[in-house]
Each structure stands twice: as C-alpha cells, then as structure tokens.
C-alpha cells in the first residue's frame, strides 16, 4: 500500500487509513471520486451514509459537507473532477460501480508516477466513461429526520438480528405503523423493509471486512438462512459475500 500523502491541494491523492479511522468533516469546491482500493469506506453526511467496498466508488459533488470512516485498513484514493467531467455524474452523492479498467486508471492516476496534465486528463476521462456506463448502485442509507423515525431506526440498529415488524417497533416508539410507513417513504424514499435491508447489507460489509464467516454474518444481520443473505448481498454489492471476503484477503496480502 502507498504511504499516505496529505497534500489536500493535490487533485490526485492516496491516503492510508487505519481501521475505524475517521477524517474530519470537510467539503471540496469541486466534485471528487473516493475509491477504496482496499478495505471498506463509508461516506457520511447529514443526508445519510454511502458505503463502498473495493468494487465501488463514492461520488461526492462539490460543496457537500462530509467525512469518511474506514472499516479495515483502507487504501483511499481521491480523484477530483473538473466541472466538465463532474457534470456527467449525478448532482448528489452516489455509489458507482468500478470496473477493472476504471480501477487500474484510478490507481495509475493516484500512484507515485509523475504524469503530465494531458495524461492525467485522459485517465480521468477513462474513469468517467466507465463509471457512467453502469447505473447508480443502491448502497445509500438515507438518514431520517423525524424523531419517531429516528427512534425506530435506533431500535433496529441495536438489534439487527431481531425480526420485529414495523408495527411492533412503532408501539415501542409511540407511533402507528401507518404513520411510520408513510414517513419512511417520505423521508428516505424507500419502505421500511427496503431501508432495513440496506442497513443489514451495510453492517454485513463491515462484519465481512472484520473476518466474520458468511454464516455468522447472515445470523448477526437478521437473515433466516445464509442463502437468503447471499442472494440479497449479491444483488446489492455485485458479488457473493464469500467472493467479496476472499478479495479483501487477497488485497491485504
């Protein structure tokens, strides 16, 4: 892994973050891509969290206040995009699929080799072309604001393996199931079950990074059986949990 280079004025950077290390809250004038070559990286804002394993990158438009949190030793690569390329990406934070070609271009751009401005721009163009060829990835966990929803989400986070229904959680939080169901869609853009699945996948990524076996992750995150977990994980992350965990071990060796 590279040594961390802390010159934030340099548009292409590599930062080595330790497990559970967090960056201070900050924003950039220009949009930038954040790619974890190893480890898992979470981007946290007031609007929610986005999580990226090594086959995903997080896009952060200019001006968004945010901070990063590393899960596992994380080789974080940062590529700032000029306005003409940033305009091709979403106007909001997003998780994007990283192809092998985009990965190699990102590593080349953020590596130690000196390249002239024209070469760096060509590499950025390769990255953008590949990232925009695939749809936005569903690894965003919106942060609700309503106090009743926050109470429910805290209950879910405290017992992720629990099978409690929204109605049962609502009785503990002092709100009806109908009200909570409406608020979930209104504030997060998804229903309660979809939101909880997203949370479970986020937690699963972190547990897999910590080396927990797939069967243990499935149980800890609330799936009744490993096959259901594997199906949900593969749909959202793009690879099975076993393959994902093996790729982490290979990257750190």
TrEMBL record:
Tell me any Pfam family this protein matches. HTH_18
The cross-references to SMART domains, in alphabetical order and at most eight, read: HTH_ARAC
Supply the alphabetized keyword list: Transcription, Transcription regulation
Does Ribosomal protein appear among the keywords? no
Domain named HTH araC/xylS-type is located at 150-247
Recorded protein name is: Helix-turn-helix transcriptional regulator
Q: Which organism is it from?
A: Kineosporia corallincola
């Amino acid at each position: 892994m590279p040594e961390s280079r802390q010159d934030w004025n340099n548009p292409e950077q590599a930062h080595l973050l330790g497990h559970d290390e967090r960056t201070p809250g900050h924003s950039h004038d220009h949009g930038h891509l954040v790619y974890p070559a190893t480890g898992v990286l979470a981007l946290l804002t007031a609007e929610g969290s986005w999580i990226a394993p090594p086959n995903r990158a997080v896009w952060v438009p200019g001006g968004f206040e945010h901070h990063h949190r590393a899960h596992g030793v994380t080789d974080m690569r940062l590529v700032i995009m000029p306005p003409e390329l940033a305009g091709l990406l979403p106007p909001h934070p997003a998780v994007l699929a990283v192809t092998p070609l985009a990965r190699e271009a990102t590593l080349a751009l953020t590596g130690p080799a000196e390249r002239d401005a024209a070469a760096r721009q060509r590499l950025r163009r390769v990255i953008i072309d590949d990232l925009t060829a695939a749809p936005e990835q569903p690894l965003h966990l919106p942060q609700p604001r309503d106090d009743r929803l926050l109470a429910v989400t805290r209950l879910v986070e405290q017992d992720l393996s629990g099978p409690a229904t929204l109605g049962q959680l609502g009785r503990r939080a002092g709100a009806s199931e109908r009200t909570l169901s409406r608020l979930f869609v209104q504030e997060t853009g998804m229903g309660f079950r979809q939101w909880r699945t997203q949370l479970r996948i986020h937690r699963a990524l972190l547990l897999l990074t910590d080396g927990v076996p797939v069967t243990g992750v499935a149980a800890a995150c609330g799936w009744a059986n490993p096959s259901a977990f594997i199906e949900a994980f593969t749909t959202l992350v793009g690879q099975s949990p076993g393959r994902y965990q093996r790729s982490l071990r290979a990257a750190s060796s």
